[in-house]
Specification:
The complex is a heterodimer of chains A (about 230) and B (about 250).
Chain A lengths: L2 H21 L1 H22 L3 H22 L2 H9 L2 H7 L4 H30 L4 H28 L6 H28 L5 H30 L1
Helix pairs in contact in A: 1-6, 2-3, 2-6, 3-6, 3-7, 3-8, 6-7, 6-9, 7-8, 7-9, 8-9
Chain B lengths: L12 H33 L13 H28 L2 H33 L7 H22 L3 H29 L8 E2 L3 E2 L3 H33 L12 H7 L1
Antiparallel strand pairs in B: 1-2
Classes of the chains: A mainly alpha (about 230), B mainly alpha (about 250).
């Protein structure tokens, strides 16, 4: 298998998925809108005290990002599974794990990247500013691809299973714990003045590890689902 | 295989079923005996702790339960991996049989931990590294079992929950270290392989006896559960040593 044909396969999948998302923009907009609403609910719940909001801000933004990512997971494989495209993808000469990377990247561009871009605006609601705002964006930039990677495993496992929407949440949320801890920890420690570099490095390590293992596990799960 | 026992023989449910049936009484008896001795030593022989008083005695259940909860997850993942690699049905059945026992020990470790934490730390629950990772381990056990029950097709249920168990086994150490760096209150381990033990010899012996007892209990209960799973999946009476008749079932009741 030549290297160029692998990249060609990834590029083709990404282009196709992005095109499909552009044709149904409301789908992608929904999870972003969900994020905005959830984040805005917290000040209403805990009160408008600026000191409290600044303390919980990073955690709230990260948990909301986790949930928004979770909501969009069903879109990664379900449509292709229902109309049979997925079965064709298994038959393609390129390894399935490579195609999975393409699909996960497209999912991140559709649901993860808007969260990253929107986060500075949302964090202003919580009184984050200056350096910690930059660290938050950086942590989301490193963390959300990992969320998509891990989420793809769950999405593939519950493909076509009854009650899959809730089940995927129960499977995937425990796996998201390290990313949440490192992501929110990076922002908190930069606010405390000790710098977020250590946590950001760990987020990067999580990303590399998930990039290495998750596509392979997802491919195995997809083959099981398609048997 | 050249050695005495032909292990591959037991990769068929027909051979494993009677073997499990023969082994269960032995492991049960050993488990009960060890538990009796271990609890006696823990409650009556081991000295009172000079700092924590009598309340520390819960560790004779707590620590072995926590060890077993992690150990059983790894064993479950190994069976799941063997099942996926060799496509062996009994391996999946073993993985399925281990999950509830592992979840039970995880819950027991959390419960006894809370009972110990209240008098010692003054709180039922604290967000400490080991408690948090144990809680997440419980969630993962729940995930494995829920995924299995949600899928009707047995073959897919076996393989999907095996994949999830294997993903989880990669995740557990990462969670452990992440929460450890995040926040730590739990006391350092009193028993470690490298430095030896810091506790009285009788305490250590009691704890090790309880660990062995829980181990034997796990084997007994897992083997009897695997028999139930086989009975559920296959048309069992055909390979029972003696066919079960309706009268026999009635007598047993």
């Amino acid at each position: 298998m030549s290297r160029s044909s692998m990249w060609g396969a990834i590029g083709g999948i990404v282009r196709r998925d992005l095109l499909l998302a552009m044709r149904r923009r409301s789908d992608a907009a929904m999870s972003v809108f969900f994020l905005v609403i959830v984040v805005s609910l917290f000040p209403l719940g805990v009160g408008p005290e600026p000191a409290v909001l600044r303390t919980i801000g990073p955690g709230v933004l990260w948990v909301a990002a986790l949930l928004a990512c979770l909501l969009s997971l069903a879109r990664v494989f379900t449509a292709d599974y229902v109309d049979g495209t997925l079965e064709q993808m298994v038959l393609v000469p390129q390894p399935l794990a490579v195609l999975v990377v393409g699909k996960v990247f497209a999912h991140w561009v559709i649901s993860g990247l808007p969260i990253v871009l929107l986060s500075p605006l949302l964090s202003l609601q919580f009184g984050l500013s200056g350096e910690s705002l930059g660290v938050l964006v950086m942590s989301l930039l490193l963390g959300t691809p990992t969320l998509s990677m891990i989420g793809a495993i769950g999405a593939a496992l519950v493909l076509g299973v009854r009650g899959s929407g809730l089940l995927v949440a129960l499977l995937v949320l425990p796996l998201y714990v390290p990313v949440l801890i490192f992501g929110a920890g990076a922002v908190t420690s930069s606010m405390a003045g000790i710098g977020g570099e250590a946590n950001l490095s760990l987020l990067g390590a999580c990303l590399v590890l998930s990039l290495f293992l998750a596509p392979w596990a997802t491919a195995v799960a997809l083959r099981i689902a398609l048997e | 295989m050249s050695t005495g026992i032909n292990w591959a023989k037991y990769s068929s449910p027909q051979a494993l079923y009677p073997l499990a049936g023969r082994l269960i009484p032995w492991f049960s008896v050993v488990a009960v005996a060890l538990m009796g001795v271990g609890l006696y030593m823990g409650f009556f022989v081991a000295p009172t702790d000079f700092q924590q008083g009598e309340s520390y005695r819960i560790i004779f259940v707590h620590v072995p339960a926590a060890w077993m909860s992690m150990f059983l997850y790894v064993v479950m993942a190994i069976w799941a991996g063997i099942g996926l690699g060799l496509n062996a049905r009994p391996s999946f059945m073993m993985a399925q049989a281990i999950a509830p026992t592992g979840a039970m020990f995880t819950f027991l470790a959390l419960l006894t931990g809370a009972m110990w934490g209240k008098p010692t730390w003054g709180a039922w629950w604290v967000w400490d590294a080991r408690l948090t990772s144990e809680l997440i381990l419980l969630f993962q056990y729940a995930g494995v079992m829920l995924l299995r029950t949600s899928i009707d097709d047995v073959r897919r249920a076996d393989r999907s929950s095996a994949v999830f168990a294997l993903v989880g086994v990669v995740n557990v150490p990462i969670i452990y270290f992440s929460v450890q760096w995040w926040n730590t209150l739990h006391q350092g381990a009193s028993v470690s392989m490298s430095t030896g033990s810091k506790m009285a010899a009788t305490m250590l012996i009691a704890m090790l006896l309880m660990t062995l007892a829980f181990w034997m209990y796990s084997i007994a209960i897992i083997l009897s559960r695997v028999r139930c799973i086989m009975a559920e999946r296959e048309s069992l009476p055909a390979w029972e040593e003696k066919p079960v008749t309706i009268q026999k079932i009635a007598e047993a009741r």
